[in-house]
């Protein structure tokens, strides 16, 4: 605690006074505003006219060190749990940013730099581990997901899109995620009362899906299957199907139609040129869904994927 000049006002006038002092650049950045014996003490860098000013003991402000304070510029990174994810081509720059992130007061334990694109049928990528480990627990809209980025695919950038879909889920509906990963669609859908099936070729992803179902208290409504989704025996079962495999979901449309019940909402993800982002997917769905009435309920752009390419979602209702 240090004795510094403070404007003394009653708490009822505190916010108005603070704003006026801030507008005149008079607030002291190194000290906290303090309440004592019914008075508010606002530390100032100079004595302003028109206020009662007196010396008062106030605590120093706890100022966080941010990465930009170390680097001199604002670095670009994505947070996933306690991991910072970089996408830097220059290894020296990546190392500089990683060191600054670790030195900052941000609650980070690990820094990873992307070393490859997502590849292979298990949809994983290589990483340069610049600090810490590749495992974390990510929290998203009240749900926790344990994962290992070295062994599974997970994109924190799709959190808003996942929430958009999950908000539509109804209790007791029958929900299939054909490419479930660690369960970012399945687990919150189960939390809303759906009976869910999550399928993935990656055995590690399925292990994490089971762990995440347990972590979030929904194991009784989650069935996790390590298999090619084309081989599962849930014909005519689903009320809702998620197909988040945007580069090749069209190859699985026959399976989706087989899994669909008499009435089913399909969330079909695609990546297409901005000139016609929805047309190819819609045409593919209509061609595959013989025997169903096909209604496109939503044409939704998720995000920009690459120059002139969009990641999109079609919410399509199939009705017998």
UniProtKB/TrEMBL annotation:
Pfam families assigned: TRM5-TYW2_MTfase (PF02475), Trm5_N (PF18093), TYW2_N_2 (PF25133)
Alphabetic keyword roster: Cytoplasm, Methyltransferase, S-adenosyl-L-methionine, Transferase, tRNA processing
Residue ranges constituting the SAM-dependent methyltransferase TRM5/TYW2-type domain according to the UniProt record: 77-320
GO cellular component terms attached to this protein's record: cytoplasm
Biological processes per GO annotation: tRNA N1-guanine methylation
GO MF annotation terms: tRNA methyltransferase activity
Superkingdom field: Archaea
InterPro entries the record matches: MeTrfase_TRM5/TYW2, SAM-dependent_MTases_sf, TRM5-TYW2-like_MTfase, TRM5/TYW2-like_N, Trm5a/b_N
Name of this protein: Class I SAM-dependent methyltransferase family protein
Organism: Halocatena pleomorpha
